[in-house]
Design a protein that fits this description.
single chain, about 550 residues, alpha/beta, Rossmann fold, Luciferase, domain 3, GMP Synthetase, Chain A, domain 3, 9-stranded mixed sheet, 7-stranded mixed sheet, 15 helices, about 30% helix, binds adenosine monophosphate
């Protein structure tokens, strides 16, 4: 027997239509390169998103075309989230902080037809333009007065383009499994890989993220996503907060500036905000030195990297802000786990609650979680056994764009049994709190960005006086993790630490150059002859970078 319910498709445009009708006067406040405090309402936002959909159609963009964005968190980027996806095109958010050759690769791989760029990103696009094979036009996210002068062809001014458009547009309804967005991740080895979200996955993820035991989002909230909109859809906040009718505050290019963040929190009465630990560190340092407050900020969610206990304690005890640590991945939209207490836990001593906040959290409904040993046997949730962390659910990728979607295939992150292998190693305690203990993927995450350890090792090993080199990520108080290089010198070598750093500076991006070099007689290897990174991380677990 079939259920007798409407087959209404879960569409991103339905969030916008609901929001406009129910919260027409709710505000969206942004910092942009051309305005330190822009404000408008959901009504303006919905009208301009429709104008954007018309603009894209008039430019010749078609259903399914990839439309790139290289932009910070502001109202224009939000219009792209809704205008592009709502009209059936794919909003491809690109991280402007990646290495230029990665951005080049990503735009060509996704075959972006048009790209919307922040003024600040124009020099990058000018440099890359001769190599961008699919691009038919560039739209600069600014007004006429601040349009950069450029020799590039087919460059449009966003505000001028919008002003020419009708604000009437009927959002089409189509299959909810259609792609709505794309984000590339470099959290694995090799070239960045494209994750493709659907309307259905995005809506289900937004519902789950808004639940009381997740972020508890409501129309009484003032939400400030500091996590960039080019990083996994700003953790879904641009969808969940508009879905519930919250006021949005967006810090634009000032997302790492403690002073701007404090000012926005205080003057706009921000109650909920989200960012990687490095951002909270920058805000706390500014608060401590300025004596300023963040009284309205009830909840600070953090993720992307393990949150140092000190941040949780300083926010809690000095500023009365509760830290909500979460864990997820680009491949997971990203929500996997979030901190939430179970019944009876509210009365635990504060120390114990901090212990739980310092873990990666409990799973939300929609994501199944398991840990498995090397033979893929499921391990118990006893807080002791650790193994490969695997996940399943409706907002978790089946594979990467242009690569195999066949579970178990070499280039597919989903194992033969249908679980996505996260590349993280974890324990899960009897209450369901997950704790990341290590990583099997050979990458280092520093300040929220990925660095390839293999690239560092290859560069080091190209020196004739270096016999073997291994790069591992170690805790760093500012960047959460920084690369540490461990080197075995060739017989008779006379290299110093400084020589090696200088050699690498000439071959690697600044960000990838290790912060320190340690010399050793021998590196540990696995039975198959690979560098044993787990053993190395264990050996150097207490290593501290000089501050
Ligand atoms: P990305 O796809 O760039 O968002 O990176 C996802 C990866 O970041 C995960 O697989 C973890 O390795 C790491 N990660 C994310 N959140 C946390 C967290 N709360 N604690 C520790 N590692 C995290």
């Amino acid at each position: 027997m079939k259920g007798l319910m409407m087959k209404t498709q879960l569409m991103i445009s339905s969030i916008l239509r609901h929001a406009e009708k129910n919260y027409p006067n709710q505000e969206i406040v942004s910092v942009t390169a051309d305005n330190p405090r822009h404000r408008y309402t959901y009504t303006d936002f919905a009208r301009r998103s429709r104008q954007l959909a018309n603009a894209l159609t008039n430019l010749g963009a078609k259903f399914g075309d990839r439309i790139g964005t290289l932009a910070w968190n502001d109202y224009r980027h939000l219009e792209l989230y809704y205008g592009v996806s709502g009209s059936g095109m794919v909003c491809h958010m690109i991280n402007p902080k990646l290495f230029p050759e990665q951005i080049n690769y990503i735009i060509n791989h996704a075959q972006d037809k048009f790209i919307f760029v922040d003024v600040l990103v124009m020099p990058l696009i000018e440099a890359l333009h001769p190599h961008l094979t699919s691009l038919e036009g560039i739209i600069v996210l600014t007004g006429k007065d601040t349009m950069p002068i450029t020799e590039l062809p087919n460059v449009y001014c966003y505000e001028e383009l919008l002003a020419e458009q009708d604000d009437d547009y009927d959002w089409p309804e189509f299959d909810e499994n259609t792609a709505c967005g794309m984000c590339y991740t470099s959290g694995t080895t090799g070239n960045p890989k494209g994750v493709v979200y659907s309307h259905r996955s995005t809506l289900l993820h937004a519902y789950a993220g808004a639940l009381p035991d997740a972020t508890n989002a409501s129309n009484r909230d003032v939400c400030m996503p500091i996590v960039p909109m080019f990083h996994v859809n700003a953790w879904g906040i641009p969808y969940a907060s508009i879905m519930v009718g919250a006021k949005l505050v967006m810090p634009g290019p000032k997302m790492a500036d403690g002073e701007t963040l404090q000012n926005l929190i205080e003057t706009e009465k921000v109650s909920y905000s989200s960012g990687v630990p490095t951002i909270w560190m920058a805000l706390l340092d500014y608060l401590d030195s300025s004596g300023k407050k963040i009284d309205s900020l009830e909840t600070a969610s953090t993720g992307g990297a393990a949150c140092p206990r000190g941040i949780i304690e300083r926010l809690k005890f000095d500023y009365n802000t509760r830290v909500l640590q979460g864990w997820g991945m680009t491949e997971m939209s990203p929500l996997g786990t979030l901190f939430s207490l179970k019944p009876g836990m509210e009365d635990l001593p504060e120390e114990k609650i901090t212990d739980l906040q310092a873990k990666q959290g409990r799973t939300v409904f929609g994501v199944e979680l398991k840990i498995a040993d090397d033979n893929n046997n499921e391990l118990p949730w006893d807080g002791v056994a650790f193994g490969a962390l695997k996940v399943k659910g409706p907002w978790i990728a089946t594979g990467y764009y242009g690569m195999s979607q066949e579970p178990g295939a070499d280039d597919c992150p989903v194992d033969a049994d249908g679980w996505l292998n996260t590349g993280d190693v974890a324990t899960i305690d009897p209450d369901g709190f997950m704790q990341i203990t290590d990583r099997t993927k050979d990458v280092i995450k520093t300040g929220g960005e990925w660095v390839s350890s293999i690239e560092i090792e290859n560069a080091a090993a190209s020196h004739e006086q270096i016999a073997e080199a291994a790069a591992i990520g170690r805790y760093h108080p500012k960047w959460t993790e920084r690369p540490l290089l461990i080197v075995v010198l060739s017989p008779g070598a006379t290299l110093s630490k400084e020589d090696i750093i200088e050699y690498l500076q000439a071959r690697l991006h600044k960000w990838s150059v290790p912060d320190d070099v340690i010399f050793t007689e021998e590196l540990p290897h696995t039975a198959t002859g690979k560098l044993n990174k787990l053993a190395l991380r264990q050996t150097y677990k207490d290593y501290e970078f000089a501050s």
